[in-house]
Amino acid sequence: MQPLKKILVAIKDLDAQSMPAVRKAAQLAKASAATLERFHSLSDTILVEALDARRVSLKDFETQRLAQTLNRLEVIAKRLRQHDIEVTCAAEWDYPPAEAIVRRALRSKADLIVAERHATKHVAKWMLTYTDWELLRQAPCPVLLVKLPKPYHRPVVLTAIDPFHENAKPARLDAALLKGGGQVASLLRGRLHIMHCVAPATLIAANWTASPVIVDTEQTSMAVKRARKALVSEVARHPLPSHRLSVVQGSPREAIPAAAKSERASLVVMGAMSRSGFKRLLVGNTAEAVLDSLTCDVLVIKPGRFQTKIPRRSRGAQLMAFPSTMTG
User: Which residue has the higher pLDDT, 285 or 293?
Assistant: First the structure.
């Protein structure tokens, strides 16, 4: 992760009483002396018939709404500037929201995007929506998705890496994860915890039990020792703040959320891979399940040289007109 010079925080609800993403982005901006840009995309649909009924032109309506949005952003920006944080505001007619945020990040050359999870009433409060996944998949820079409302206070930053670089995972991604985890932990005066998951040896059970039985064999113990040695060797190659190492037995989809919960982590740092199709986001379904299972904030980092495929040109306002009916 690059040194933070420009942080883009996406505002989804201008009238929200609480804005955790803004508060946490401000903490990072203050600690890193970075510029904080507050951005809101005007992505709601405009009904052409409603404009006609009000005798308002599309251009005038867009201009008025844009001015109102910028004024609202400035009200909150003034409070942040009182804490010696350099804050700018931006708003644009563009859709869908994930693409709009990515386009703004490209134009502003943001080093980090901070956004709240796009909550819905139909999923668990920590699960990610389509907008969240698209933002993670397409963002050109690291993305901090905020799930917890409380501000950071000497947070535990949990970073999960694979020192063996399995599943075609490049070594440079683990280097980026360690750098990003150490960077955030230092900025927030938190504690860095680096972990690796080892699949335990299992014995296929007979009919008298419904699930596999995990057996603590000599082979498993050797695998744990080998993994810890590799983890120590990998971490030693990178300049990091004070940290804790651990090797846990279990699948990542279960072990990482469990470790985050037991350690009371405020933030988990994970990696994303560039792959074709929808599965290009992360290393298979396992990592996607981990992200949905985590109830704390998540910082997702891609390896270097990632290039988003989002078009640079804004879509503008989203218009809708009801089909006209003709009677004979």
Answer: 293
